[in-house]
Amino acid sequence: MARTFFRRANLLDGINPPRKNSVVVVEDERITDVCSEADAPASSSNDLILDLDGRSMMPGMVQCHYHVAYDNVGNLLDLDLKHPATMLTLIAAKNAELLLRCGFTGAVGAGSLHNIDVTLKQAINRGLIEGPRFVACGRDIVTTGDSVDFHPSWWKLEMEGLGRICDGPDEFRKAVREEIKQGVDIIKLYPTGGHGLSWPADIMTMTLEEMKAAADAAHERGKKIRGHIVSKRGILAGLDAHLDVIDHADMMDDECIERLANEGAFVVPSLYFPYMVVEEKRRTGRSNWGGADEMERGLENSRRTLPKANAAGVKFVIGDDFGTSAMPHGDYAKELEAYVKGAGLPALEVIRWATRNGAELLGMKDDLGTIEKGKLADLLVVNGDPSADISILQDRTNLHVIMKGGRFVECQLTPLTATAKAA
Ligand SMILES: [Zn+2]
Questions:
Q1: Where are the beta strands (DSSP E) in 280-326?
Q2: Rounded distance from Cα 138 to ligand 1 centre (Å)
Q3: What is the pLDDT of residues 97-119, one digit of tens each?
């Protein structure tokens, strides 16, 4: 069986510091060897040899807060009213391929309407379209009058929008079970306002009993659950309800950090969205998004607390509200720089959030997230060293190889043959 040899790599394996002159061998869908040039196995004339000449190799990244069906959303009404389901599905399919071509070989949904995440996941797994490994989310589960219950009642739209309105633990349980019946892998709740919503962060828009009912119903059937949560009170309630993922957590403090680290919940800070909203407001004096001033306070708090929380062992992952008007699809890697330049985190740590932690949230930590013998070959070859300059990941032309499950999605390198190497 032919193998692919990646030679002379600067290896960012997700475990060790960068190691120059490394060799990674892939056979079928898996990595069969990771070693130094001196220890590399002999190649045969059937093998494909790629000389990386010092370029970096890292695991494929995972976008853990993904709205594949957000299309240049300028305000909440755009979410439901801008496109019919058929057109939006096609737009989302293009976004899924774009995400993969930006180096993200995995994605975890954070809310989509018309069951688009599930449809895309099935189409990707059947080979109909290109896209990442996908953990599918469904509609936003919210209460009456929540920020995401945004259609004026006199419009009498009677449509199935992004928000699915539930009140009381029984309705939450039923909604979660119906979402799971549709094929959803992760449930999305909106327990607090803030971070772009019309209700402020301190408002709890659902009760602890409702959150617990939803989480129990999801976990009972082996599914995950996540929540848009900004305030300290919301973070603690999310942990009391055993949510798997806390989205945003802008107002995290020491007490939250201790519990998040001890209880192992994932946190998606998604710092790039508030940064863009705050910048837009500074530039234009206005913002389309709710609570820009509050978001600025959250941004400052995140910048202060993220390094401490990271050191304490909180499991951070990468993901943000791309597809909103300030941040187009395709800009995904800009978020990583926000943590390095904005919060002073080491680039290698942020890469670990994007790869190793992301693979764990995908539910594939034994198969993905690091470059080790036996793991699936979801790999990137990067022109330069992203651990020295994280911004190089933003330019897709720097992604010289994108491999998913041992198959090339992109390869800009010219292979040597084994005979050419011998000569
Ligand atoms: Zn979101």
A1: 315-316
A2: 12
A3: 999 999 999 999 999 999 999 99
- The fold of the 3-59+369-422 domain, in CATH, is Urease, subunit C; domain 1 (2.30.40)
The rounded Å distance from CA 377 to ligand 1 centre is 29
Mean pLDDT (whole number) for 62-91: 95
Residues ≥6 apart with Cβ < 8 Å to 395: none
Q: Beta 186-189 vs 137-142: how paired, if at all?
A: parallel
Residue 201, phi-psi category: left (phi > 0), alpha (psi -120 to 50), beta (remainder): alpha
- Token readout for 320 is 């943000």
DSSP per-residue codes, 230-251:
-SHHHHHHHHHTT-SEEEE-TT
Based on its alpha-carbon atoms, the radius of gyration of the chain, rounded to whole angstroms, reads 22
122-162 per-position pLDDT tens digit: 999 999 999 999 999 999 999 999 988 889 889 988 888 89
- CA–centroid distance, 279 to ligand 1, in Å, is 19
Average pLDDT over residues 308-317: 98
The CA 65 to ligand 1 mean position distance, Å, reads 6
Out of 3.90.45.10, 3.40.630.30, 2.40.128.630, 3.20.20.140, select the CATH number for domain 61-361: 3.20.20.140
What does the alpha-carbon distance between residue 391 and residue 333 come to, in Å, rounded to a whole number? 8
Ligand 1 mean position, distance from CA 250 (Å): 13
CA 124-367-335 angle, 5° bins: 70
Burial class of residue 46 (count of CB atoms within 10 Å of its CB; 0-12, 13-18, 19+)? exposed
To 5 degrees, how large is the angle CA 188–CA 117–CA 201? 25
CA of 70 to the centre of ligand 1 (A): 9
Q: What share of the chain is helix, strand, coil (3-state, %, to 5)?
A: 35, 25, 40
CA of 220 to the centre of ligand 1 (A): 25
